[in-house]
Design goal:
six-stranded mixed sheet, 12 helices
């Protein structure tokens, strides 16, 4: 049994950087870990069986009697988690901000529902590999810019190319809702904030575009309109409308827009003041992917801890909530997603509720919960083993990670630099 564990370790460190793991060929049994299932439940002493990329069985090790497996991993004293999911991410779309040729996150124009972020996704991005050592194994690759930015897709973060990476293509369309106010910038004094006089005309422009798109889709014309074609599925629930909005008025207007246009699935992205209209969101089955947790409040006279408390306010109101990371240096900070959840736990949520914000809840919001987000029999074997609490920065130390049963390399440019300079300082001590 021990030799199999040794082989597994050798295979881990034998992977070349950014070389995707091969398909699972041998059955694996993991015993003794404290399993956090991603649905609020915990198994203190778990047993997990992986066969052909799927979870063949998971349960209490004191009750279950497993059959013989090719490889057994003793994870006693460690923690088992479903792979974390980073929604509304530009990971793989930009490599170096200052190098224009490596920036492919947006297109010119205001209404671009036909722009598909997935075909621009770079599976070999150096930034992609930095997320896996912290447990972030999946992401929703999302375009930026314009009024309608384009269409997102969901990927797993260990692939040769975008085709191999894809979990769900064209899952939804991203709409940037206009602001009801305008300001000169972050430095603006209170007097610099004023009502956006173009707010209503901008909403009317959005409505006109949707009217024209739905009229086209309901017609029998032989002339193809590619942008309008991309709008197909919004009214049938085959695609989700993701609306970027933070203000109370903006969120209310977006929900009214949903009802008026018979849009089946809507998710608010940002949702800073969503807690003020939580009842409306719940009644209309609208989920929220919250604004970055590690941030300052939007207004200077607000509770400085409001960004930390926001998740609990919405969870207590019964709204389905996940965490996202859009903003400055968002691609580099994708790896910090578990620590955002940890902050939410420090400000009111239980650890298992906080875990759901980046696992089970996010999978439901993105429509991939039939295979990902939780540790359940029959679902994809996409998970990792951590030495300690994965939501804590000091104890998020991952020893094994799997995507669809494939054993991943946890090497990255960061680990290479760590080993390099560790050797340097050890030499200086001699």
């Amino acid at each position: 049994m021990k030799k199999y564990i040794v082989i597994l370790f050798i295979s881990l460190f034998g992977f070349a950087q950014q070389t995707p793991a091969p398909k699972q060929s041998r059955s694996i049994l993991i015993t003794g870990a404290k399993a956090h299932l991603g649905n609020g439940k915990v198994i203190e002493n778990s047993l997990l069986s992986i066969v052909n990329g799927k979870i063949a069985a998971i349960g209490d090790a004191t009750v279950m009697k497993p059959s013989k497996h090719d490889i057994t991993i003793d994870a006693s004293g460690k923690h088992l988690y479903p792979g974390f999911i980073a929604p509304n991410s530009t990971l793989g779309l930009v490599e170096i901000d200052a190098v224009r040729a490596s920036d492919d996150e947006s297109e010119i124009g205001e209404f671009n529902p036909h722009v598909r972020s997935i075909i621009a996704y770079n599976a070999e991005s150096k930034l992609v590999e930095t997320t896996r050592p912290n447990g972030v194994l999946m992401a929703q690759i999302t375009p930026r810019g314009g009024r309608i930015s384009g269409t997102s897709s969901i990927v797993q973060l260990d692939a040769w190319n975008w085709e191999d990476a894809t979990i769900k293509t064209d899952d939804g369309i991203h709409l940037n809702w206009p602001r009801s106010y305008s300001r000169a910038g972050w430095w603006a004094e209170p007097g610099g904030i004023e009502t956006n006089k173009n707010y209503e005309p901008q909403i009317k422009e959005i409505q006109t575009y949707f009217d024209n798109a739905f009229a086209y889709l309901n017609s029998k014309t032989n002339k193809k309109d590619i942008p309008f074609e991309a709008m197909k599925g919004l009214q049938l629930g085959e695609k989700t409308l993701y609306v970027n909005a933070n203000g109370e008025k903006e969120i209310i207007d977006a929900v009214l827009f949903k009802k008026k246009n018979n849009i089946q699935k809507m998710v608010i992205i940002g949702g800073y003041y969503a807690f003020k209209v939580a009842t409306l969101l719940k009644e209309n089955n609208v989920s929220v992917l919250l604004k970055r947790v590690h941030d300052l409040p939007l207004l200077e006279d607000e509770d400085v801890n409001l960004p930390y408390k926001n998740a609990k306010l919405l969870v207590d109101a019964g709204v389905l909530v996940g965490l996202q990371n859009a903003g400055d240096m968002e691609r580099m900070q994708t790896r910090n997603l578990p620590f955002y959840a940890g902050t939410c736990a420090a400000w009111g949520l239980s650890k298992e509720q906080a875990l759901q914000l980046i696992s089970g809840n996010t999978a439901k919001i993105l429509g991939i919960d039939n295979q990902y987000g939780t540790l359940e029999t029959g679902k994809s074997a996409t998970f990792f083993i951590s030495e300690g609490d994965a939501l804590e920065m000091k104890t998020n130390i991952i020893s094994f990670a799997f995507i669809d049963g494939r054993h991943l390399s946890l090497e990255s440019h960061h680990t290479e630099l760590y080993e390099r300079y560790k050797g340097k300082f050890e030499q200086q001590k001699k």
